[in-house]
Write a structure and sequence with these properties.
The protein has 315 residues and is mostly helical. The protein has helices spanning 2-29, 31-58, 76-83, 85-115, 123-135, 138-148, 155-162, 179-204, 208-216, 221-232, 234-249, 253-258, 270-279, 284-313.
């Protein structure tokens, strides 16, 4: 019996060895391609794979940059997350920010794409104007809006008072109720042009014959939009929602520039809270634990969205 099994194993081992030799032979033939790929692969291995692995290692230690002792603490950093009220507040703020920005940017982007998907006079100019915020650096956009929201001489308060909508200046970025909506408006302004361009590409890929046939059958504008436009834009919507979700869930720069997490942690997002622990308190171990908890949440919600769109739109 043992001899029989040995006879069966030998061909398998030989086939694997021969496959390995063929692979190495092909790699030697294409060595120039691997040479050109080497710089990018080295950077990826060092700054992504190694960095992520080392951060995972740090999450099990009490790792303070200023202290020589860096003891192993096991899962204490992860347990600490459960009792950290500020971390829970950062999670709530991040979900609030994401739940507001994604529907607004996607809805407004689709509306603009529908309006600008016609051969009207100056359509190219309008498309350019709506897309300019996308290519504006986020830091510059945040500084501009910080000036617009300024309580004493900001443009927003000036025009609202001239229109008699408000009686006295509002401290947009210092008010607990107004700070997060103010940041949300900035992000929607910044990203709606990207959504518009993607939807424009999707709309122009829909054959006009579908709309002509629907008109012949007596379908109105709303019915054509519901039965033709929305279903045929399902893959585009999936792409846009995922991109917007990832961008909103990683909010940092606008928070750092405009509010610094205030007032009273009302705009502190998960990424900003990780930053404060890592580079202000130098608690790299706890910051790494938060980073992996954040990654787990991001990964789970991306999977949920993927399954939802597959189920709803059959792709």
């Amino acid at each position: 019996m043992a001899v029989h099994s040995e006879v069966l194993v030998r061909p398998v081992v030989r086939s694997r060895q021969s496959a390995l030799r063929r692979t190495l032979r092909e790699m030697r033939k294409q060595w120039t391609a691997y040479l050109f790929l080497a710089p990018g692969l080295i950077l990826f291995l060092v700054f992504v794979i190694f960095s992520a692995g080392y951060a995972f290692y740090l999450s099990f230690h009490q790792w303070n940059i200023l202290e020589p002792a860096k003891p192993y603490v096991g899962l204490d950093n992860y347990r600490r997350l459960l009792d950290d009220e500020r971390f829970r507040q950062a999670v709530v703020n991040t979900f609030y920010y994401t739940a507001a920005t994604v529907p607004l940017s996607v809805g407004l982007g689709l509306l603009l794409a529908l309006l600008l998907n016609h051969q009207i006079r100056g359509v190219g100019l309008f498309r350019t104007l709506f897309y300019i915020p996308v290519i504006t650096p986020l830091v510059i956009a945040a500084i501009i809006f910080k000036w617009v929201y300024q309580g004493d001489y900001g443009l927003l308060n000036y025009y609202l008072m001239r229109l008699h909508i408000i009686d006295e200046p509002l401290l947009w970025l210092s008010d607990k109720q107004l700070a997060m909506p103010a940041v949300i408006i900035m992000w929607v302004w910044k990203t709606v042009g990207f959504v518009m361009v993607v939807y424009l590409a999707g709309l122009q890929a829909i054959p006009q014959d579908y709309y002509d046939a629907a008109k012949v059958d007596g379908a109105g504008v709303l019915r054509r939009f519901r039965d033709i436009t929305i279903p045929l834009l399902s893959t585009t919507t999936f792409f846009v929602v995922i991109i917007q979700f990832l961008g909103s869930f990683q909010a940092f720069t606008q928070i750092f520039v405009m509010t610094s997490g205030g007032p009273v942690n009302r705009t502190t997002t998960i990424v900003y809270y990780i930053y404060t622990h890592a580079f202000k308190r130098f608690d790299m171990g706890y910051a790494s634990a938060m980073a992996f908890a954040y990654f787990a949440m991001l990964f789970c919600f991306a999977l949920i969205q993927l399954r939802f769109f597959r189920k709803e739109h059959d792709f």
